[in-house]
Fold:
Amino acid sequence: MTDIASAPEIKSANPAEINAAFGEFLSSFEAFKETNDRRLAEIERRSADIVTVDKLDRIDAALDESRRKLDDMVLKSRRPELGRPSSPALTGGEAEHKAAFDAYVRAGQDHGLKRLEEKALSVGVGQDGGYLVPSVTEAEIMRRLSSASPIRAIAGSIQVSAATYKKPFSKTGPQSGWVAETASRPQTTSPVLVELAFPTMELYAMPAATGMLLDDSAVDIDRWIAEEVETAFAEQEGQAFVTGDGITKPQGFLATAKIAETSWTPDKIGYKTTGVSAAFPAANASDVLFDLVYTLKGGFRQNATWVMNRKVQSEIRKLKDTTGHYLWQPPTQFGAPATLMNFPLVEAEDMPAIAADSYSIAFGDFKRGYLIVDRVGVRVLRDPYSAKPYVLFYTTKRVGGGVQDFDAIKLLKFGTT
Structure:
């Protein structure tokens, strides 16, 4: 539960502060490269000096902290103030819905929403109660999730009205061939089709407000709800899209069937191994990353993204190619992602740390490989009784997800088989 009565309005970050933070981040990376170069030179001579290693670890931690600070500032700069006008002027049914929803959230008056439901010949109250939020509020929630949820930002997505989205999938790959204009068409092998199902699961958050906030007509209630559920929804989605079990949440790509790339079949995600348990190879560590990149087909590779957590990225920063250039490069401007071998890198903290047989690095075209299914409609149930003097807002949305093209994502396994 969150008490926001005394919370300050969210202000846009000062551009000068963002520029200073970005400069600090780039300076930290230059210091990191200088110290790591010294460490590598010491290893070549004998062994790395413990003082150099300790300094490198401290700079690496500072680099992570600078990036975290910069990300927070950029995200903050994109958030409008709560009192700012929420959207362009609405007309017709949308304006009526928004006004009725505002009355419900602020004062619990739901007769306007009930009348709209009767007018639309639909039922707005589900089995758990609650009313559909206006389309502008739903759009604001989805916009924020696209910025805050790392996998949602790079994956494919579709909106549906049914509880489950289904699509056919060929386990044997597409059947095709070349023929002359007047030649007979040879019969192709019958494809083995299966049905991929993406059921939508219920995700909820329960922000709390005080009566003082709800009585303040200057506060944009739509933006307040979107902001309050943003973090809760993004954290839950982030975990589900990576490791979700597919039972009470979407199925994550790491929970999908996997197989060694040498034995790959169209219904499993292929993986390459590092050849060493819980580590990169001691020599030519970067080779396994190059192998993973070229395991992916060219059509997927041109839109591919790296996905890993912050600690794994810390290890990657130390690696160089055969010409002595660092594989990892900082973003060229604030708001842009870091790159690894010229491909964008997304931090997903739900990716596993490096351990024996862990799948700690993913690389692929996630827009074609992973599908997020959003059921239309976000519901809010106002509860002024359970946590007096606060008013709770039980907010729910339904979302599903799963792999839709098993050839578009590849994994790196920190093991031998």
Remarks:
- The radius of gyration is 25 Å.
